[in-house]
Design a protein that fits this description.
Structural class: alpha/beta
Largest sheet: 7 strands, mixed
Strand order of the largest sheet: 1-4-3-2-5-6-7
Length: about 250
């Protein structure tokens, strides 16, 4: 966990050659779960192509990770695009509060978009074997996702920012228990759907917008790595699967 006030960001690059149409050039986005081979890192690329300021988090903050993001920036940046990398563990409530505090207090930014896509695989855990890993995954993908969105709302409210609501793009799933043996994954995704009603009941419209993207079967991610070998078989029966780039396009498009 990172103590509030001690969180440090690494600015990879802050300017670049023109690349594509700048459709989000004045926007600030926070993206979690942006590791190699993830849907989130493909969304980061799309945002950089539009000229956005992107804050991306990683739980493996180090030279190798920074080099990866630097290459990502060089290949996909547009004029004015900025990319910051923050060390972050979404399973830690302390880190959740610290990262939002750092963005608003230290970086003096106001978020237009949050993409809380951090996830943890729970493959093999059935209802009789719910253990620590599933609880950590549930905290990461549900409890602290709500905390993060709530912390953004509180930051805007404290600063009386009522004309720039942050769009929270929720990673939903068609898997509501249909696969089985995946711990609390289905419960995490189902719980996020309550935010659509809370947006009304808690009158969040001044500070937040809520949208959900239903993530299809995406090949090559850490969540689906153990199931990639069956993809040819299920696709032969008419089921559609996606690359991370395709799913990012479907999510951000």
């Amino acid at each position: 966990a990172v103590k509030r006030g001690t969180l440090r960001s690494q600015l990879v690059l802050s300017s670049g050659a023109p690349f594509g149409e700048q459709v989000v050039s004045s926007k600030v986005a926070l993206v979690t779960g942006g590791g190699r081979g993830s849907i989130a890192v493909e969304i980061v690329k799309t945002l950089l192509q539009g000229g956005a300021t992107v804050v991306v988090t990683t739980s493996s903050f180090g030279a190798r990770s920074l080099e990866h993001f630097q290459d990502c920036y060089k290949q996909h940046c547009s004029t004015g695009a900025k990319l910051y990398v923050l060390p972050f563990n979404q399973a830690s409530s302390q880190d959740v509060q610290a990262v939002i505090h750092h963005i608003y207090e230290t970086m003096n930014l106001d978020l237009n978009l949050v993409v809380p896509f951090a996830a943890l695989s729970e493959n093999g855990a059935d209802i009789g074997s719910i253990e620590d890993r599933s609880e950590v995954a549930h905290r990461m993908m549900m409890t602290n996702t709500l905390r993060m969105i709530g912390a953004i709302k509180s930051a805007k409210e404290a600063r009386q920012i009522v004309s720039n609501p942050c769009l929270a793009l929720l990673p939903l799933s068609p898997n509501h228990g249909v696969f089985g043996r995946d711990g609390l994954y289905a419960e995490s995704k189902l719980s996020l759907e309550s935010l659509f009603q809370k947006w009304h009941s808690e009158k969040l419209g001044d500070y937040l917008l809520i949208a959900g993207v239903v993530i299809g079967w995406t090949r090559g991610t850490s969540l689906k790595a153990t199931q990639d070998e069956v993809v040819p078989g299920i696709e032969s029966h008419g089921t559609r699967t996606f690359t991370t780039r395709e799913m990012a396009f479907n999510s951000a498009g």
